[in-house]
Structure formats: structure tokens, C-alpha cells
TrEMBL record:
Keyword Iron in annotation: no
Domain of life according to the entry: Bacteria
Coiled coil: 84-111
PROSITE patterns, alphabetized: HTH_MERR_2
Pfam family, one: MerR_1
UniProt-recorded name of the protein: MerR family transcriptional regulator
Keywords (A to Z) from UniProt: Coiled coil, DNA-binding, Transcription, Transcription regulation
Domain HTH merR-type: 8-77
UniProt keyword Repeat present: no
Organism of origin: Fusobacterium simiae
Length: 268
């Protein structure tokens, strides 16, 4: 007489045939996703050959990124529309992950360039003229003007107001561009993102680098405007302020490298 148990597969045998590890088979059993047909008192699990097909589906779905819950719902409530929804949702998740990875790569490239260019810079008050290509930025207008006296105050402010500082971050000024304004007051925060909501204008920039703890901003901006006046330049756009090495390179908390970039043109 044919003994049914003789036609069953041990968990090790089923693991080899299905490509699912023994540990995952035990996990799937506990999650009611793929249960053995027989479980003896010694806790040994046994499977049938016709469960191989379901196991293959699980392997494929997991490689496609579907969660255990999604796969379980698929087996319990199978329909074409459910499968299409699962696929559509997973495509959206993958697109989001790809976008995040591209942003991470972009951030790493930025920081690599900044370290190579600025890490050895110890001199204070360096003026350079550079031509910048147009650049994508994401602007985050502030609901109210905030006076930021120190770099750490700025970071704390961002955290309290749920402003993401995981990107390269800085400030941009559009109005009242004169030495008389209080440069501690933040007008708008920008992030360097691959996909932004604002394009930084291409063109000629005066770039001023110095060291700051945030307390001497008015003094630094006064030096910038004095230099612009001495060279007969005219401000031809916005002013961007950022800290190229902060957050990624060990520095004195009271001595951050600040970079002020001013769109300029020569007087006719």
C-alpha cells in the first residue's frame, strides 16, 4: 500500500527544490504564507510536490519587491486588478527609491568636490570670480523671518520646523541686497536637489569664502559689498550663502567655512 508520507518532502528537500531557505520556509509557515501539509509532534515539517508551484510564485514576488502581506493578500484574494495594483504600487516605490539613490549620489559628488576644493583652505577672506551653470535648487520659504546668530542655531531651527537638512543646505536672498540689511535674518532656505522648484541663474559670480560661527555675518557681507564697489561690479541677481564642509568634515564648531556667492556684472 502506498504510504502518503513516503511521497512528502522534508523541509530540507523542499528548500532545495524551491530555492527558499529553510529559515524562510519556517518564517513563511509562521506568517501563514506557505504552510507544510504535515507537521509531526517532533515539529518536523513536510511538504507536497504540488506546493512547489506556489513556492516559485513566492520567490518571484519577493524578487519583484512585494511584501509578505501583499503576497498573502494575493493568494487569499486573487484577481487581475489586485495584481495590477500590486505592480503599479511597486513601480512607484521603485521610482522613489531610484530618485533617492540618485539624490544620494548627487550629494556624494557635491561633497567630494567641496572637500577637494576647500578642505585645505585656511586663509580668511578669499575673493574669486567664477562662472556658474544653471543649477536646480529646492526653495523652502520661511513662514516668518528668523534671526539666526550661529550656525548651530540655524540647524536647530531647521529641525524644529521640519526642514530637511539631509541635503546640502544654504540660504538665498532676493531682496534688499545691501550692506545695511541684517544678514542674520533668514529670507529663504535652499536645498541642492536634482529636481528642484527653482533654477539658480547661470552667469558670473563673485565667490567669497571665509570662516564664521554665524555671529559675524554682517561684517562678512560688508566686506563683500565693499569689494563689489571697489571693482565697479553691479549685483545682477540673487545672493547665495552656504557652508560647503559643514556636516561632513571635522571642523571647529565656532569656525565654519562660509561661501557667499553673488551674481554680478560689470558696469557698462
Amino acid at each position: 500500500m502506498d504510504n502518503k508520507e513516503d511521497r512528502l518532502l522534508t523541509i530540507s528537500q523542499f528548500s532545495k527544490l524551491s530555492g527558499i531557505s529553510r529559515a524562510n520556509l519556517i518564517f513563511y509557515d509562521k506568517e501563514n504564507l506557505l504552510k507544510p501539509v504535515l507537521r509531526k509532534t517532533n515539529k518536523y515539517r513536510f511538504y507536497e510536490y504540488n506546493q512547489i508551484s506556489k513556492a516559485y510564485k513566492i520567490v518571484i514576488f519577493r524578487k519583484m519587491g512585494f511584501s509578505i502581506t501583499e503576497i498573502y493578500n494575493y493568494f487569499m484574494n486573487f484577481s487581475k486588478n489586485l495584481m495590477l495594483d500590486m505592480i503599479s504600487n511597486n513601480i512607484k516605490n521603485l521610482e522613489s527609491q531610484i530618485e533617492n539613490l540618485e539624490q544620494q549620489k548627487y550629494n556624494l559628488s557635491l561633497y567630494k568636490r567641496y572637500i577637494e576644493k576647500y578642505e585645505s583652505r585656511n586663509n580668511e577672506g578669499i575673493f574669486e570670480e567664477e562662472f556658474f551653470d544653471s543649477e536646480e535648487l529646492f526653495l523652502n520659504p520661511l513662514s516668518k523671518k528668523e534671526k539666526i546668530n550661529k550656525m548651530n542655531d540655524f540647524l536647530i531651527y531647521c529641525r524644529k520646523n521640519n526642514i530637511n537638512i539631509d541635503y546640502h543646505i544654504g540660504r538665498v536672498f532676493f531682496k534688499n541686497l545691501s550692506s545695511e540689511r541684517d544678514w542674520h535674518i533668514t529670507e529663504c532656505i535652499f536645498f541642492k536637489k536634482i529636481k528642484g522648484n527653482y533654477k539658480k541663474e547661470a552667469g558670473k559670480y563673485l565667490v567669497y569664502t571665509n570662516f564664521s560661527d554665524g555671529m559675524n555675518l554682517n561684517k562678512l557681507y560688508k566686506e563683500v559689498f565693499q569689494y563689489i564697489e571697489s571693482k565697479d561690479y553691479k549685483i545682477n541677481g540673487s545672493i547665495y550663502e552656504d557652508y560647503p564642509l559643514s556636516g561632513i568634515f571635522a571642523t571647529d564648531e565656532n569656525r565654519h567655512l562660509i561661501r557667499i556667492s553673488v551674481a554680478i556684472k560689470n558696469y557698462p
